[in-house]
Specification:
alpha/beta; Maf protein; 5 helices; about 30% helix; elongated
């Protein structure tokens, strides 16, 4: 019988200050630390929402890995895609109302990218978990009541599907159920295992 207590494993660092990603990563029951990535999140000219999510996730992981060269570092980013236009975090009530009015009755793709980097062993991997979300036709009154109730101003797309925001939707299609909240745990678990961080 193998002694699993002696299996070597690398430390894990989450390159994000998002409380949602931190809460999701805690589900894997692997000790980790958090380090804020210093990455400019401004979209580039003509950069697609998918390319923006991929660039930022990898950029965050690489930047934080420079300070934790022996660790396995996770970087992640999510960009809402409305007909090819990126929708970021609204930041305030007015912007959130505009976003939800535009998404009313529409299909929105949430590109949730996750990157894992370990500089010491040369590991680098990037995956994207697309989530296809159909919004109901929303009245201005429904939008206002929702925003007053949940103030989702730090969420791409202005809705928290894990909370009351689920009532704004008709359907969600995804192969990684936590991706819409901000971190696709099926992909993340697979990648950090490959990088040298034990889970089970």
């Amino acid at each position: 019988m193998n002694d699993l207590t002696n299996v070597p494993t690398r430390s894990l660092v989450l390159g994000s200050t998002s409380p949602y990603r931190r809460e999701l990563l805690q589900r894997l029951r692997v000790p980790f630390t958090v380090d804020r990535p210093a990455v400019d999140e401004t979209p580039r000219d003509r950069e697609s929402p998918l390319d923006l999510a991929k660039r930022l996730a990898l950029g965050k992981a690489r930047e934080v890995a420079q300070r934790h060269r022996q660790a396995v570092v996770i970087g992640s980013d999510q960009v809402a895609d409305l007909a090819g236009e990126p929708l970021g975090k609204p930041g305030n009530h007015a912007n959130a109302a505009i976003q939800l009015n535009r998404m009313s009755g529409q299909l929105v793709t949430f590109h949730t990218a996750v990157a894992v980097v370990c500089l010491e062993n040369g590991f680098e991997s990037l995956e994207v978990a697309p989530v296809f979300v159909r919004f109901r036709a929303l009245s201005p009154e429904e939008i206002e009541r929702y925003l007053q109730a949940e103030t989702p101003y730090d969420c791409a797309g202005s809705a928290r599907s894990e909370g009351l925001g689920i009532a704004l939707l008709e359907r969600i299609d995804s192969d990684d159920p936590t991706a819409l909240v901000g971190l696709p745990l099926i992909r993340t678990a697979r990648m950090i295992r490959a990088a040298g961080c034990s889970i089970l």
